[in-house]
Amino acid sequence: MEVRSDAYQLRCDKLPAPPLPRTRLQVWFIRVCSSILLWTCFIQLVAVGELWHPHLLKGLSNQITRITHFSLHLEQASPAPPPLLPARIYKSNGYLKVSCNGGLNQMRAAICDMVTVARLLNLTLVVPELDKTSFWADPSNFDDIFDVRHFIDSLRDEVHIIKRLPKRHSRKIGNQLLEMSPVSWSTDKYYLEQVLPLFSKYKVIHFNKTDARVANNGLPVDFQKLRCRVNYQALKFTPRIEALGNKLVRILKEKGSFVALHLRYEMDMLAFSGCTHGCTQEEAEELKRLRYAYPWWREKEIVSEEKRSQGLCPLTPEEAALILQALGFHKDTQIYIASGEIYGSERRLAALRAAFPRIVKKEMLLDPLDLQQFQNHSSQMAALDFMVSVASDIFIPTYDGNMAKLVEGHRRYLGFGKSILLYRKRLVELLDLHQNGTLSWDKFAGDVWLAHEKRMGQPSRRKAIVDKPKEEDYFYANPHECFCERANCDGLDDPGNSTVIL
């Protein structure tokens, strides 16, 4: 064994030593030299080709030139995204979590408010949670509807926003978390004097309700302008919603001008408002059962006709048809129905469709496969209607809900697009008089027009009512602090220019 071992060792000693590994510098040097050699050979080949056969390599040379120019053109056509604004440096007083409640536009307004509150109190805001338990039961998260990266980056100079709480707080949140609902219609003083001191004890505060938690009026101008900045610049829909919404607008515009009619004659609206005018007895009972099925809906027994006479009900599709005709819209007007499923379906749309045959809905304009990804996601569907309504030539809401108000404000902000804000209390009176034969068509149409002559979305100031915030004009329907510097707002203090929507 020893002899064999020595022989084996002798043979091993005679083997050549393995090569030493190359250093990074050597590898880099070899690559550079190889590249120079290859390009030199190629240039020489082109030169020789030009001398002996001038057209032989001309095509190849032109192709290379075209490719180079095309690449440069692509770089020029796709500019780099604008640089991020410098982040605002501040000592955070704690973390603010918020859970939004309601439909898409109610939540949108709440997000704007909560960003502004976080800025006011020097807090770190966690990306808001969206409502998944309301009537619509939409499972969408924030980043399913809004471009979350744009939201965070575009506001970094105002407030630090994070996607989730740091793990150290998530693990031992216990006594560090306070759940609360801020007082409705509160000013900046409430948040500074009553909410901010709570962060000295609780590192995280969770606002479990956010609807209408900030006042419409009596706030600093900078506070109001930040609400606008969040609404009109930071809250962008996701690329897939933007793409499909733009496609809808393009299809409509290719067919001419169009009216967006926000026909809020949907089951949830009728059930919770108690408005059953035009419904059968069976339908009225169905809507009542739905209202009673939701324990948090406080108002149960509702007299429909009383609410309607006060202008507190959405117009029926039949009433909407008469009003559009009285306002002078012709039979060939293209009308986009911006809403969910109309209660009573096509049966209730028959009169409106007979008066205006060019009625369309998103389901009629888009391929079913385009909408398949949005099925059972009511907020994402509402986002499409929102985009079309903002882009429409004329916007007409039949009820002043959250979508109607936010679209109205958006159109004002973008240049006072025409929005006919229906004076429902007066319209109900005129409709009843006309339908019982007391008022002729010409008189009816004339009175309808006169009632809306100054309700077309013109510049105006919000009406403030001391101690009655629910009755005053809504900030997001008319955020005049955000555009009066760049628009002609002369004469806004004239009382006749206040918006009153019923």
Topology (SSEs and partners):
Layout: H1 2-14, H2 24-52, H3 58-77, E1 95-98, H4 104-121, E2 124-126, H5 142-145, H6 148-154, E3 160-162, H7 167-171, E4 177-180, H8 188-195, E5 204-207, H9 221-234, H10 239-254, E6 259-262, H11 267-273, H12 281-292, H13 304-309, H14 317-326, E7 335-337, H15 345-355, E8 359-360, H16 362-365, H17 368-372, H18 378-391, E9 394-397, H19 402-413, H20 424-435, H21 441-452
Parallel strand pairs: 1-2, 1-5, 2-3, 4-5, 6-7, 6-9, 7-8
Helix pairs in contact: 4-9, 10-18, 11-12, 14-15, 18-19, 20-21
Main location: membrane
Subcellular location: Membrane
GO molecular function, one term: glycosyltransferase activity
What does this structure look like?
The chain has two domains: 140 residues, Rossmann fold (3-Layer(aba) Sandwich), CATH 3.40.50.11340; 245 residues, no CATH class. Helix content is 48%, strand content 6%. The protein is built from 21 helices and nine strands. Strand 7, helix 15 and strand 8 form a beta-alpha-beta unit. Helix 10 packs across helix 18 and helix 18 packs parallel to helix 19. Strands 3-2-1-5-4 form a five-stranded parallel beta sheet, covered by helices on one side. With 502 residues, the protein is an alpha/beta fold. It is a single-pass type II membrane protein. It holds the Pfam family O-FucT. This is O-fucosyltransferase family protein. It is found in: Membrane.
Give me some keywords for this one:
502 residues; alpha/beta; five-stranded parallel sheet; 21 helices; 9 strands; 6% strand; disordered N terminus; FucosylTrfase_pln; O-fucosyltransferase family protein; GDP-Fuc_O-FucTrfase; glycosyltransferase
